[in-house]
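Late entry, evening session. Most of the bench is empty. Finally got around to the prediction I had been postponing all week. Sequence below, unchanged from the version circulated by S.P.
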Amino acid sequence: MAEVPAASRRRKLTAERERELLLVTAELVGEVGYEQVTMAAVAQRARCSTATLYRQWESKPRLVISAWKALTMEDGNDLSSIDTGSLRGDLMDVARYLVADDLVKDTFTSVPAAIVQDAGLMEIVREILIHPIQRDLAQLFDRAVARGEIEAGNPVIDLADQILLGPWLAQTILHGTPATQKLMETVVELVLLPALTAQPATV
C-alpha cells in the first residue's frame, strides 16, 4: 500500500483552536510590541509547537496580521455588511469601522511603524487587510453609481482607498497615536464626499 503523504496526515486546526492561537498572538503583540514577538513565544504561551504555527501561517508577519484581522472581526465587525442606502451613510460607517475597536488599536499600535521598515510585512498587510477593504469599497461605490449619487467615471473613486486609509495609517506612523472616529469622519465629510460629488469643471 502506498504511503499517505505527510501533508495529508497533518491534523487541521479547528476554528476554535485557530482563533485561540490568533488571540494569544494579539495578546503578545499588545504586551511587547511587534518587533519583540517571536513564533517561539507564541507557541510557548499557546502550548503548541512552532511547527504548527509555521504550517498554518508560514511566518510571523502573516500570523500577526491574521491576528489583527481576527480581532477586528471578533464582534461581527465586517465592512462588507455596510449598506445604509446612501453614499454618505456608507462612508461614515466605513470611517467608524476603521476605528471601531479600541482593543484592536491598543493591541496593534506597534505594527504601523514596523510596516514602514518591512516591505514583506507591507505585502501581507495589503493581502490580508487592505485588499478586502478595497474590494468592499468598490462594491460600495458601484451601489452609489447605480443610485445616481456619483458618476461612474469619477477618478476620485480610484483614489478613495488612499484618501481613507492614508490618514488612518499616517496618524499612528507620524504622531504615535491611533486614528480617531472624529478624524476619519472629518476626512469623509470634508475631503472624500466633496471630491466624489463635485461637478466636473467645464472648459
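Two things to note before I forget:
DSSP finds eleven helices and no strands in the chain.
The radius of gyration is 20 Å.
Will write this up properly tomorrow.
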